[in-house]
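Build the 3D complex.
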Amino acid sequence: MKKEILEALKQNKGKFISGEELSIKIGVTRTAIWKHIKQMKEDGYDIDAVSRRGYRLIQEPDTLELNELQIDMKTRLIGSNLIYYPSIDSTNNEAKKEAAAGAPEGTVIIADEQTGGRGRLGRQWVSPKGTGIWMSIILKPELEPAEAAKITQLTAASVATALRNVTGCEAGIKWPNDIIINKKKVCGILTEMSAELNSVNHIIVGMGINVNVDPEEFPEEVRSIATSVKESVGHEIYRKEIVLEILRIFEDLYLDFIRRKSIDKSVGICRKYSVTLGNQVRIISKDKVVYAEAVDLTEDGELLIRNEAGEIEKIISGEVSVRGVSDYI
Amino acid sequence: MKKEILEALKQNKGKFISGEELSIKIGVTRTAIWKHIKQMKEDGYDIDAVSRRGYRLIQEPDTLELNELQIDMKTRLIGSNLIYYPSIDSTNNEAKKEAAAGAPEGTVIIADEQTGGRGRLGRQWVSPKGTGIWMSIILKPELEPAEAAKITQLTAASVATALRNVTGCEAGIKWPNDIIINKKKVCGILTEMSAELNSVNHIIVGMGINVNVDPEEFPEEVRSIATSVKESVGHEIYRKEIVLEILRIFEDLYLDFIRRKSIDKSVGICRKYSVTLGNQVRIISKDKVVYAEAVDLTEDGELLIRNEAGEIEKIISGEVSVRGVSDYI
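Done.
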C-alpha cells in the first residue's frame, strides 16, 4: 500500500492532496493513510502535513528501495524482476544464486550496501551504505564463452552515457571495464558467466558506481585512483536517477544487440568516450609487459594496438591488463 | 551409528560377529544393534542372524548411499565432501548451487535418480532410479575459460579406465566427451563452469553412466545409440565399485594436472582408448559440415584433423561437434 500512497503523492508532487482523497483513491481509512505517511517521513521522505489541506510531497530521500524504482521504471526486460537488499555480501554472488535457481533474464539485483563487494579476480570492492550503486543484471544471451566480453562493452557504454546524461560529468571508458572521471575510477564492471564449453548459460554483469562516496571513505591504497560522481560534480546526485537511466540505455543497447547480433552501437559509444584510444598503453599478460599504442576498437569491442614493431595486433578483453604508461589510465 | 555397525560387519564380511561384541564395540545396547540390523535388512542388506552366533554380512545391496561410499573411499580431495540424494533434478544443477554457496573443491554430488538429467546444450539425459551413476564434481583449478575442456578430457580418461578396471569391458572414448562400448554411448560428460572473462571460478564436471540400465529403459529415439555396462558384460555391476574407482583415478590425474600444469597423462589415456583417432569424421560447426580424418590429440587434448586439402588443423572442444561419417561414432 505504501507504493500506492507514494505514487499518488508523486503524481501531485509539490501540491497538496487531502487525506480523504487519498483514502478514497486507495481504499483504506484516513487513519491508515496517516500511519503510512508517518512511516514514510521516518524513512526520509520530506512530506508536509497541514490540517484541512492534506499532504504534500516535497522531496524523496536518496533511496533505491523497490517502490521508488518501480514507480518510475520504464524498461520492459531489464529490471522486470527487481530484487533489492538493504545490505548483502555481493550482488554478483546473489545474482549467481538467483540465476542457478532459475531467475529470468533481465533480473536486477540491487543493494544499498555490499559487505563483500568484489572486483575482478576476487579483489575487494568497497561498497559503503547509501552512497553507491551496487547492482547486477542477469542475462541469457546466445553466446559462446569467448563472446562474454561483449556484454562488458555494452555495460560500459550504458554506464558512461547514463552518468553523462544525468550529471553532465565527463565520464570516460578505460578499456575494457572501467568508467573514469578526471583520470580516476568511478565505476568498475565485473562480468561473470555460467557456461558449457561452447555456450553460455547465463551472464551476470555487475557494476559498482561510486556516486556519493566521499574520498575519505575509499581505502587509503586506492584513494589516489578512485573518485565519485559527487567529487566530480560538486554535489550529491540521486542514485535512483542514474539507476533508471542505466537500465533504460542498457535495455536499448541489449535488445539491439540481440536483434542484430552486433554490438556496434555499444562499441561506437565506447570509442567516443574512450580514454584508452590514442594513448600509449602497457599490455600486461601473465609472463610479460609490452608497450604499445591503443589504436581502435573492433566491431566486437576488442582493442587494436600498434606494437613496437609497428604492426597492428588485436587484444581480447580478459586475456591481458591494459594500463597507461605513466599513470592509472 | 548405522555406519559403525556396517563397518564392523564389513570388516568381518562372511564371518559371524556376536551381538554382544557389536554392542561393546559400538557402545550401544544389543537391542539397539538388533533394531539397526533389522532396518539394514529392509534396506536390502543380506545379513544372517543366527542365535548364539550373531550376525553375518552376506552381501551389500547396490546402493550409493553415503555410508557405503564413505567406508570404502580412499581419496583425500575428490569426494572429501560427499552429498547423496535418493532423487534430484540434476546433479550438475545441485553442484552449481552448492558451489555458489561456497562448497569446497572436491565436493561430489551423487544421486540414485535424476528427474531432470541434462546432456550438452540442455538435451535430456534419462537417469532412472538405482541403475546408473549420476554424479558431479566441483573443482576450482586456476584455468582460463578456454582451458575448461581439459577437465573433460581428464574425466573421460578416468571413466574409461575405471570401467575397464572394474568390469573388464572395452570402454572407448569418443572425443571429446562420450564413453563408448560396442560403438554405443555408455556415458556422457557435461562440463560447466562459472568464470570471469579470464579466469575460472569453478568447474562442475558431471557424468551420467548407464551401469545397470536395461535397453528398454532408454527412450526409443536413443535406443540404437545407447548402451549400458550391464548390456556389455552380461550381468549387473555394483555401481559403488565403479564410483570409487572413478574417484580414485580422477584424483590421481587431477592432482598430477594441478602439480605439473599438464594433462598429458590424461591425454595419453584418451589417445590409447580413443575410438575417434584414425577414423573419418564429420566436423559440424554452426554453418557447415566438413569431412576430415581424425589424426591425433594435442598435449592439451585438442583434436588434430587432416582436412580435405591434406592440411592438419586443430579442433578445439566445444567449438564443433565431431561425428563418424557412417554412424554414431
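Residues 280-324 of chain B form a domain with the SH3 type barrels. fold (CATH 2.30.30.100).
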